[in-house]
Every structure is written in C-alpha cells, then in structure tokens.
TrEMBL record, chain A:
<feature type="region of interest" description="Disordered">
    <location>
        <begin position="1"/>
        <end position="21"/>
    </location>
</feature>
<feature type="transmembrane region" description="Helical">
    <location>
        <begin position="277"/>
        <end position="300"/>
    </location>
</feature>
<keyword id="KW-0813">Transport</keyword>
<feature type="transmembrane region" description="Helical">
    <location>
        <begin position="33"/>
        <end position="56"/>
    </location>
</feature>
<feature type="transmembrane region" description="Helical">
    <location>
        <begin position="168"/>
        <end position="193"/>
    </location>
</feature>
<keyword id="KW-1003">Cell membrane</keyword>
<feature type="transmembrane region" description="Helical">
    <location>
        <begin position="124"/>
        <end position="148"/>
    </location>
</feature>
<dbReference type="InterPro" id="IPR035906">
    <property type="entry name" value="MetI-like_sf"/>
</dbReference>
<keyword id="KW-1133">Transmembrane helix</keyword>
UniProtKB/TrEMBL annotation, chain B:
<dbReference type="InterPro" id="IPR006059">
    <property type="entry name" value="SBP"/>
</dbReference>
<keyword id="KW-0732">Signal</keyword>
<protein>
    <submittedName>
        <fullName>Extracellular solute-binding protein</fullName>
    </submittedName>
</protein>
<dbReference type="InterPro" id="IPR050490">
    <property type="entry name" value="Bact_solute-bd_prot1"/>
</dbReference>
<dbReference type="Pfam" id="PF01547">
    <property type="entry name" value="SBP_bac_1"/>
</dbReference>
<feature type="signal peptide">
    <location>
        <begin position="1"/>
        <end position="20"/>
    </location>
</feature>
Amino acid sequence: MTRARSLNHAPTRSLNRSLNHAPTRSLSRALPVTPAVVLLLLFLAGPIAYCAYIAFTDLQLTGQAEDSFVGFDNFRTAFGDEAFLNAVWLTLVFTVVSALLGQNTLGLALAALMQRASKPVRTLVGGIVITAWVLPEVVAGFLLYAFFRREGTLNAILGWLGLPTQNWLFTLPILAVSFANVWRGTAFSMLVYSAALNEIPKEITEAAEVDGAGGWRRMWHITLPMIRRSIGTNLMLITLQTLSVFGLIWVMTRGGPGGKSQTLPLFMYEEAFQKSMIGYGTAVALLLLVVGSLFSVVYLRLLRTEV
Amino acid sequence: MPVRPTATLPALLALSLAAAATLTACGSGSGSDPDTIKVSFKQSTDNSIKVMDTYLADIKKQFEKANPGKKVEFVPIKAPDSEYYTKLQQMLRSPKTAPDLVYEDTFLINSDITSGYLKPLDPYLAKWQDWNQFIDTAKEAAKGEDGKTYGIPDGTDTRGLWFSKDIFEKAGLPADWQPRTWNDVLDAARTIKRKAPDVIPLNVYTGKPVGEAATMQTFEMLLYGTTGGTTTDDPLYDRSAKKWITGSQGFKDALTFVETLYKEKLGPDVSDALDPNVMTRVRGEWLPQGKLAIALDGSWLPQDWLPGSGHAWPQWSDELGLAAMPTQNGQAPGKVSMSGGWTWSVPAKAANPDLAFEFVKTMQTKANAQKWYVANSGIAVRKDVAKDPSYVTAQPGIKFFTDLVASTHYRPAYPAYPKVSTAVQEAMEGVTTGDMSVEDAAKGYDEELKAAADDQVIEK
C-alpha cells in the first residue's frame, strides 16, 4: 500500500499544479469523460446503491401494502436461517471443488501438456475444450443433465463396464454440478495458462533441464513461480465467475433434492422471486458479495509478488 | 480522483443532470392513448401451443368491430408460471408499465390485492347482468380480504385420479374403479405393484422441484379430505380467526400418506419424483406409454394430448379411466377436489380501466366463454354453459370434472399463501426422501409457518 501511495504521489502533485494554473483546460479535459461518468452513475452506481438500500428494508414483490426500513433484520434472519448457512457451505464446496481444484488445475495441466503436443493434437483438444466454454449456460446444463440422469450417458457407460449405476443428480448433486462447471469452465483457465506458459523464456527451462531437473521439479521451482501472477488473476476471475453460477445448477437440479445443491445464487432467487422477499434476497446478495471479496483478499495476500 | 473541486464540478453536475433528464425522458414515452387498451397474458413457453393467442385474437376482432375507433394491443409475457408472476408484478408497480388488463392466477391474486396492484371491480359488476351466471365458489376465487371482487374467473379446474384401464385389467382391478377411502387407493397401488411390477403404480407430485403442483395436486387433495368437507371448514386457514393453522392431525395424516407411498415404493423412484421435469414426463411419457397406472392430477391433462402438441394421443379417452379422489375415511361428501384457475383483473394503475372492463365483457359472453373453456380444457364457471349439452359433450372427461365442482375447495390464497405453500413442499420433500419423520416435518412446517404468517397462527 505504501509503495502505491509514493508512486502516485508525484503525478498527483504535478496534476494539481496544472489544475491550479489552468482550470479551463482541466474542464475541457474532463468533458470527454462526462458522458461515460453519467452513464455509469445512472445505470451502475444507481441500481447498486438502490440494492444496498433495499437490503435494509422488508420490501416484498407482492403481498404487502407498504415496506419499511428494518435495519439489520435481514442479516440477522440470514445467519439464523439453516437454509442460508447450508447455501453458504455448498457455495464454498462448489467454488473450491469446481474452480480451485477442477478448472484451475485441469486448465494448467491441459496448457502444460499442449505446450509439448503437436499442432493437430493441440488444435483438436483446444477446440473441444473451448466448445464447452462457448456453449450457452442453459445448453451446457441440459447436456450435463442428460449425461448424469438415471437413464443418462454416464450410467450407460458404467453399466456397459459392469460397474454399479446410480442417479448422480440425486445422490451426489453438488458434485455433479461441480463436475458440470469444471467441464464448462476449464477452457478459460487453459487459455490464461497457455498464454502465461508461452511467456516463459525457453532458455530458463532448457538450463534447468541441462542441470538435471526433472519435469515435476521444473514445474514446481521454475514454471509456477514465473506464472504466479497469472495464477492469481485466474483464480480471482474463475472464483468470481463460479460464485455467481446460476443457470447451470438451475437446469440440472433446481438446487435440489432437498436443497443439497442450493448454492447462494439459487437461494437468493428462491427467496427474492419465488417467495417474493426482495429485501431479504438482496441482503443475501450483499453477503455473497462479501464472500467474493474475502476470496479476493486471500488471493491478493497469498500471491503478493515482490517486484 | 485527483480532480480538485473547482469550477469543474458544478459544470459536470449540470451536464450530468441534463443528460439524466434526457435519458429518463425516453423511459416515459409510452403515453396512454385513451382509445387503446393493453392486455397482458401468459404465453405458453411451448411454441406449438397457441390456444390463448388464437382465442384472444378472435376476441380482439369482435371487440374492435363492436367498438369502432378502439384498439386492443397485446403485451404477452412468455414465461413459466413463477417467472410470469414476477414479471407481471414488476410491471404493475409503475403506471408507465402497467397494462389495462392482466391475467392473474388465483394462487397469487390476494397477494397482489394486498400490494395494491389491482382495482376493485364491484362498481362494474353491479351493472353487469352476466355476473349472476357465475357460480358462487368461482366468485370467491378473486375476493380480497376486504370482501371486494378483483377479478373475473375465466374458468376453473378440478383434480382427480386418472388410471390406465389396461394396467388395471392386468392387475385384476375393476374398469369402473372408484376408491372410497385413502386406503383403497393405496391398496390398488399395492396390487398393481404385485401384479404388474414393471410399471409405476401411483404418481403424486411432491417436493419443491414441482412447486405449487405438489401442494395443490397432492397435499391439499389429501388434507381437504380429512375434515368435514364443507367449504367453510378449511384445514389450512381459519377464516373466522384469520389465522393459519399449524400442523394438525389431518396435516400429519396427509404427510403419512405421502411417506407411505414412497416408503413402500408405490410411486416413482424418489429421484424421478424430485426431478424438476417430472410433470412433463407424467403427461408426455409415463401415461401415454402405459408406464404409470394411477396419476393424481388435474383436469387439464388432455390439453397436452391434442393433435399438434408433439405427443398427440387421440385415443386417451378409451385408454384412461377417471375416478374422484376419495376423502380420508370415506366421510361425506365422499370425494374431494381442489380448484384454482385464472382471472382477468384490472391493474390499479391502468390508464383505461373502463375500456378494459368492456373487453372482459366481450370475452365473457356465453358463447365466447364456452369457446374458451373447451379450447383450454377448462371447467365452466358459468351456470348456463355448465348446463349446455354442447359443452358437456365437447370433450371426453368434461362432464366428470365439471361434476366435481360441487365438492371442490379453493385455496386460502391470502398474501402469505405462496410462502405457506413452500413450507408444505419442504415438509413433503422431507418425508419423501425419508430424511425426516412425519413428526419432524410437521414441526418444521410449524416453524416455517410462523415466519411466513408473521405469527398469525392457531393450533387445532
């Protein structure tokens, strides 16, 4: 933080000086950005501020003559609500399993393997993975619903291999949707890591190889430290994406059975739009924002680079 | 932002305000034309089903011909039920977006009345002769807690047992089956399980994935058969005390029925029952393909089997039998049904309420109402249509389901109802999966109910 301040210090001072001298010029400089600022205030800051406000009211979409300000009631309700705590827990499971472990490591593995692969293989694998990523969420949801359901593809394969089958969406719903999210989202991590690996100078890896470092050691001691920043960026982005996954889970399980795959976005939807508790749903949305920021802070601290 | 508050700021502010003013001005350009009414309705998400669009287009033609210079503009909302409600409520909140006439589900109408979204229609009804033709129970469907009427029902629905004659024959059960008690229903299912092990004996909807269908098609069909059976004797809501009733003995008995059915594997596999797409499978797959023996379901099913629906099944009326759902121990009146349905309502913020009501009158002439009941597989709420032989014979099953209107119940669709319904679904889901005992599920319901009804509860 201190470093950042000292960095910004000099330009600020010079800018202030120029401002004092030429107010007209600064006005004419500010002019081009005003439309953008106005639009942002109107369409982004406005709704966000309004959301923050209604999280502290008991606003309902229907069934209420007038709403009132209730302070922290909604938040108190949330922390005393088993369904909410269950949703928080499932959100963490879903995020850790599908984003951190799944998409992230699989993406890195694919990127590393593709570095060595021949061009046709690279094109083919890349094409398949990216196809899964560009599919609309609902389509991906239906595909994976068809894959996991009791008469689905997965059980057909298991049955053919003589292994026991089960209804995955019913017995392990959170793992089924996590797998679906890995299937759908790995491409993003793969692309980020492919770009990062291409940045590593060949000389370094070759030198390590000459010194007798094996593949794993090269990965651990050279590659990973060198792409640390990309790892941070990637983790941050996929975590935030995963925290807000809705359509995929909605199509596959609706958060069921019995709330066993009801992550926070689905819980929010149920409270706000199915039970009409807009105020409460918005409060939960703010809490989801907090969960997202906590993750971000952890990543920033873990991956702070000493430049 | 390293910009000092010099003259820049006021200038920017003035600019922003000007910009904001122009931007918001685009929003209010709808302009209410006194000669045009806007009508919102729920368009089917299935593109092959155009029943309502076709019917309304015809009414529009009649209306514009009878009222020269007046225009009708449709604002259809294409969405599944729950999302339709949400969208509609958002439109009703502002005079800029409120239509002049909306299609309201009786499930939510009281909630919307409390929110002040709708206009009482009593002054119009007082001057409208045809209102006397509507049956009393249907008039109740859109009555607010203030005793005023907020909607004109365009038909209703009833519920009963559909069964496969073919499977019944294999299982040695009578083709004119009519169970007298809940036990008769379960025994028939047990017999089918023994004699025809490859079919699902009995389907009842359960749990949150199917939503209100679980509450109404299953739970209330059971619960309302546990009491004396008069329409005033409501086991969910005490209308005189204006309080919701906590898990009574009848409530637990209804849960026990659901528990027994799934525990003895007399229903579909639990994972299928809790699959959000199970309703589509019952209508499109299990019943037509003879994989299901008995279905506790609504009068509207044949809608899905019409030609051009994607799973046409013209011979359904030969292959399926119908039986009324019995009361718990056969107590009078011996059978039970629940009714819901939709009404036409005028938003409080409508620009042309008078003209909107004229449109309703056109829709609800005897001839037009009858056309609609038949097209929509709906049940008549007009006495003159219910008596009309051409209506009674228009489709197989109409007579059976219309006769059930005499022993039907409407939901206590007060503002808390949607939340109460969710609490019921959670209790059902608990006993279906076996995660909860009946006692625990009923206890859980009591807690949820207190929260849903702001402690306005009563024990019975």
